[in-house]
Input
Amino acid sequence: MTGRTPRRRPCGRGTLRRPRRISNDVSRGVSGGAARSVSAGAALLGAAALLVTAVPAAHAAPGPTGSAASDVVPGTETDTPALVEGLRESADAKAAAPDAARGHLAAKESRYSIDDPAKNLRTVGSSKDGAKETVRFQQRYKGVEVLGGQYVVRMEKQGGTRTVTGTSGQYFTELATSVTPKVSGKTAEERAVAAVATRLGTNRLTAHKPGAPLTGKAVRLVVLPQGKGLLTRQVTVSGTDAATGEPVLQQVYVDAASGFPLLQYSSVKTFGAPGRTVPDGRATASSTDAAAGEQADPAREFPGTTGTGTRLDGTKTDLNLYYYASRGQYTMIDYAHMWDTSQNVLTTWDARGKDVGQVSGRWPSGIREFGSATQEFGDDATQAGAVDAHWAAGQVYDYYRKVHGRDSLDGRGMTINSLVGVTSGGQPYVNAFWDGTKMVYGTGDDEYKPLAADLDVVGHEMTHGVVENTANLVYAGQSGAMNEAIADYFGNAIDTTASGTSMDDPDSGLVGENLCRTTAPRACAFRDMNDGATTSKNFLGVSFATDNGGVHLNSTIYSGALWDIRQDLGAELGDKIAYKALTDYLTPLDGFTQGRNATIAAAKDLGVTAKQLNVVKRSFNAHGIVPGWEQALGVDSDRLLGKINTYATGTGAGGGWYATSRSNDDGSEPFSVWAGRTNGTGAPKLISSNDGNYNVYAATDGKTVAWASFGASSIDLMVRPVSGGLPKKLWSSYTSLTGIRVDGDLVVFEESDPFGGRHAGYVDIKTGKQAYVDGGRYQLGSALPSVADGRIAYGKLYPEAGEYRLGVELLDVATGKTTLMPDAGKLQSVGQTGISAGGHPVWLADEDGVGQMAVRTAFPDGAKLRDLVPETGDGALYAYDLTTSDTAVTVTAAEPDTAYRNETLPKLWQVPADGSGSVQRVSCNRGEQAYASADSGQRVVWIDGTTGSTDLVTRERPAGRC
Output
């Protein structure tokens, strides 16, 4: 995607906003999951929104060895080697390449430990480059595909003989799981949609939800390669983020035994952070009036023609076109590029007036190819970016065909479709993306040109298509950062080659630098591959809710290494090394270290000299991409639990104790709730039962632990004393349970009704009394509850004088009395609530709708309303969560920016509850800080992503200034 990174809504608990005039954006975090190193630090698997961008690989046991002349890199948590080089072993020369490759793996089972390759390996790609052959296989377990399980076999065939030269990839040998689901597809869809809605904050307290609704479609069963394997239902959730207007196309993996959403990530591959399907063939005529007779018959004479147009930089260029007689128009359909191969086309479509939500993952109705009455396209096509898009698509196709011998994005001559002029909510859209089938380019705005106006942007988006049809690097965490890095690298390579820019030019590493209408290239650029980013100085551990796990944020660490290689070894060799690593070595879950190994192996395969090979190694060293780099990242906090292998499952603290969800080292066990002392003394205690359910959203007051238990048929609210005893069920839900808090005998929570309404509820552990604070009435909404000393504070949405209003209310459970807090003005949104000493409610308040929120408090009776932190001016915060102790208020805030930086990631800030002091930083850790929970005094417990793993950490007092 291209364009500036839109203002981000950080992960976490979010806000309650008014519908239309009273919007509602409550993001309580995504259903959590295991963060683990899926074989060699792949940095992916865990649940939706997890800190897994750099989970160190488990220590690998000595692996099997190859032939005497071969080099073997053992796999991690598998008996199959990750990389075998230097082989010269004969294979069946008469068989098809896939069959010969399978035969080799079967004959060498003692080396590869791949049982029955004919049954367990499905061919997903087979290519030939001269004498060299590459076959890529997808792993299947009992007939079900394994996420990220791909293995590659490289061979040479000449003179009537075939030789295997090497293999690589990830094949998981330890799988032993049932492939019979217990959760229905419908339940999986409902919980997947709920998980995405929770992350986005689109579950609004209104009967009128803005934007397109989210829908889920159960796609298939998939095994996640965690431990012995986890059977999941893959659900595709699509629609529009109502708060930002951004397209939503999420892949959610729901545990097929318990219904817990284990993992989610976006399928929209973007340049800037954050219907019907067109057939993958020749039939690309518009849906309105293209009769079959208008489409070219391959047996007939070449149907194309040519014309001209002017690009946005003023350059006049030739265009390949097709003349539609029925329209009397020359259209941007290019038959010329693939006429000698597949006879498919490159087409540029007029999508002006279409919303981004209408085009993401689907084909919008009623659009046509850009057309002109004459062969010279006028200013209208220029200003829309259509001329640039059509010309650039041909340039990118030519680069891959001429330099790498690749026919289109899939290597088999697939149709290339570009949609131009997309808007967002009726406003300009400054972005672009590849959604798995096509390129989509936004309109640009007063500052930015249409997003197809820079060749490296088009090259970037089309390269996402190449990546998807080769290594298919999963678009999350480190593998996603590599996906972005490779797209940047080749987009830049195509652009610099076409423009004749020297690699020694200081601006040669810029990406998207020509998009601005007035700003100089360096100030305009979205990224600079020559920025010197390293793992030790610049890597930022973030959740999947932030930039899909840092796919843009951390990309220049890897792309910078590739760019250095290109600068030092020259464009031709550098490009060949990067391309070979992508197509012949990398697999979906690879991380930075595996990328280094793949690139070095590709360079060797291309016959580089020892000096050139040292250049490749030195480039990765310079960017800190060396084995074990993750372990060198430091923090200023005290670790309570390391690598808890969960993320968006929340954490709780109080009375000197913490409670949190935790999984085993490989993340394969359902999550259990553990409790321990916040000062780090003593051993943690297992609180929940190991019953196969996922136990999440834990809270504690030091005496009792409360949590949600996800099962196949219901989600139960559970409690258990810290001192011991049996777990007790207090409440059951069939939709969701989040926002759990406990104090004394009261447990509060938030639940969604089937219509999308939100209601805060409570249960008295001693008496069994249970109720919604708003009575559960559909015309009311309540959310973001907190509890202390018998009082419950919550955000309230209620009708008044023909419109909805927002406020914060305090309920005295013993008397049933409610007190609506006053406000200085008309609230546009309400954030998380808390209760400090003396029963004083504290909450986040937004009156101007800009994004910053005041930290507001009052007496229990509503008197003496004041702001601890102002909404605007000096000291204002872009806050989205808070937690209170008796004396301090801790706020989670993230500064919006056009790019992700350490300074703009979610950080913790603290202010005295009585307003007697200034705001201070809780911790100076680099990386994301989330799910904070106050203990007593100034001590805070949170989940920290600085080291790239999910660590539960604490500080006793603020760090002050950072």
DSSP finds 16 helices and 53 strands in the chain. Residues 648-955 form a domain with the Neuraminidase fold (CATH 2.120.10.30). The chain has five domains: 15-55+178-214+231-266, 78-170, 272-414+424-441, 451-613, 648-955. The first strand starts at residue 15 and ends at 17.
